[in-house]
Write a structure and sequence with these properties.
This protein is an alpha/beta fold and about 220 residues long. It has helices at about 15-25, 35-45, 55-60, 90-100, 105-115, 130-135, 150-160, 170-185, 205-220; strands spanning about 5-10, 30, 65-70, 75-80, 80-85, 125, 140-145, 195-200.
Length: about 220
């Protein structure tokens, strides 16, 4: 069985950064599952498909023309041959992705695709239901979280560094709204797997969190 590490948690908890660092350290593949929903939301926006049109969104999700390319600056994501690594991180797309992720048929269309990322020598899967739904057999499951204020501040700093204006109070409100939506959806709600390691990263640094996950991985995958 291909070894898998799942890292779940709410938006802004640092899952992506930690997943990339852990995958790089282990020499494993990485799955940014959240990007699949963001990519579906972006493709729907480009194709003028309503976010409540499940019949149209499902085949769109199933045939997404997506390529993931590792780079020195992180994961480069191509949609239909165009680099959309930054475009899919927009707050508007994030909110739309949560709506898309709440549709059962769309989730089913992407489920098999996500599991196909599990290839040798191993996979680090970043998302919201990796440990509970997509890879429930994973031997190492991590659930990362942090206060909404801490997560919003991190996102605010990222946007400022990129020259993108943002409102910190608005980011806090958006994150809380997204948490509520993700935690209460009927299909694969955001919650820790029963056997997940819970990490509150509110006061933890990136290096500290990365080493903690790697330490747990070394215990299991010697």
């Amino acid at each position: 069985m291909i070894p898998v590490i799942t890292i779940d948690g709410p938006s802004g908890a640092g899952k992506g950064t930690i997943s990339q660092r852990v995958a790089e350290s282990l020499g494993w593949h990485m799955l940014d599952s959240g990007s699949l929903y963001r990519l579906t939301a972006l493709a729907a926006t480009l194709d003028d498909i309503g976010l409540d049109n499940e019949n149209a969104l499902t085949p769109l999700a199933a045939r997404l023309d997506v390529v993931f390319e590792p780079s020195t600056r992180g994961l480069r994501i191509l949609l239909r041959g165009k680099d959309v690594s930054e475009a899919i991180r927009a707050e508007e797309i994030g909110m739309k992705a949560s709506k898309v992720a709440a549709l059962p048929a769309v989730r089913a269309a992407l489920l098999t695709r996500q599991r196909d990322f599990a290839q040798a020598p191993g996979l680090v899967a970043d998302g919201r239901d990796m440990g509970t739904t997509v890879f429930p057999q994973a031997k190492l499951k991590v659930f990362m979280t942090a206060s909404a204020e801490a997560r919003a501040e991190r996102r605010y700093k990222q946007l400022m560094e990129k020259g993108i204006s943002a409102s910190l109070p608005a980011l806090v409100a958006d994150l809380k709204a997204r948490d509520e939506q993700d935690s209460n959806r009927s299909v694969s709600p955001l919650k820790p797997a029963s056997d997940a390691i819970f990490l509150d990263t509110t006061t933890m640094g990136i290096d500290e969190v990365t080493e903690r996950v790697l330490a747990e991985a070394r215990k299991i995958y010697r």
